[in-house]
Amino acid sequence: MTKVAFIGLGRMGHGMAGRYLDNGFEVAVWNRSKAKADDLIARGARWAASPADAAAGADAIVTMVADDEASRTVWIGKDGAAATAKAGALAIECSTVSYRHALDLARELRQRGLVYIDSPVTGLPDAAASGKLTLLVGAEAVDLERARPYLAPLSATIRHFGAVGSGTVYKLINNLMGAIQIAGVAEGLAIAEQAGLDMKLVLEAIETGVAASPQVIRHSRRMVARNFAGASFTSALRHKDAAYAVALAESLLAESPLVGRAAVQAYARAKAYAPDDDEGKMIEIVSRPKGTKA
Ligand code: NAP
Predict the structure, then answer these.
(1) In terms of residue numbers, what domain contains 95?
(2) For residues 168 and 120, what is the distance between their CA atoms, to the nearest angstrom?
């Protein structure tokens, strides 16, 4: 049986790990807090005492953790996966990390004999649990071919952008554009609310107008209803992605990205307000009427 180590069982990783079990892989799992693994263990996963324990003997190691720091910890920290991974094993990083980190980690893991693929994803936790993510891959073509059997349980949609790091570049611009849109929607709706417009009509106009994108439509409905049940993407994660994207922009562009920087600032406020709540809660900050205190 083909062995996969899955590391990071948060909102996204938990469902993704389950996909390997559903598809007949032998799966070892590790998460910083063990409770999130309980039902996966009941479904047949082996609980590993550390990322290193999970990676021992695995043909592919897949990680889905919060950020650069978490990624560094689980791959090359003490008891990290790289310590035991066998030569030639696939190292598939699905977390959204910075471009710099993706390149540094790829170099480090290659030196240790692993085959690194960056494969950040788009799609919400329900897509992760049902194998309907979109995978944004940066890899040598030959490495991607080897990785396909390990990517297939996660998705049928693989967008191969080029060499290692290119999947991360696309993911970061995607999420920066999303951050700008969502922060803009919050401000637009807040103005309309305070001006006393009929918000049902505003929503209808947005949904059929030229400013709409799937992102705008989804968030405007939730913001107007103040319905943030089941946070799927948090303000802390959105802030992280926008900040990584702006850092990349600043390494490539002569002009500092003004709009991107504004989105980072907007999400820094949302993160300070409620880091682990849904990113759409931005509306609660910006809709406070003039003259009222925070
Ligand atoms: P999450 O629910 O907050 O899970 C974060 C995971 O990272 C948890 O397993 C957490 O462990 C682990 N972690 C955090 N810091 C760590 C550290 N220092 N050492 C070891 N493990 C650490 O986040 P998520 O929504 O699943 O997102 C995971 C990744 O997917 C992020 O990079 C995010 O940007 C990306 N993403 C998310 C979505 C989405 O809709 N949610 C969509 C696309 C991409 P604990 O369980 O112990 O806290």
Answers:
(1) 3-164
(2) 6
Instruction: Give the residues across from 134 on adjacent strands.
Output: 122, 157
- Cβ(171) to ligand 1 under 6 A? no
Chain segment 104-137, per-residue pLDDT in tens: 999 999 999 999 999 999 999 999 999 999 999 9
Residue 293 within any structural domain of the chain: no
Token pair 């953790």: residue: 65
pTM over 0.85, yes/no: yes
- Are both 130 and 251 inside the same structural domain? no
- Give the domain CATH number at 232: 1.10.1040.10
Distance CA 16, CA 29 (A): 11
Do the Cβ atoms of 272 and 234 come closer than 8 Å? no
Q: Which residue type sits at 93?
A: E
* Ligand 1 in reach of 69 Cβ (< 6 A): yes
Percent pLDDT > 70 in the chain is 100
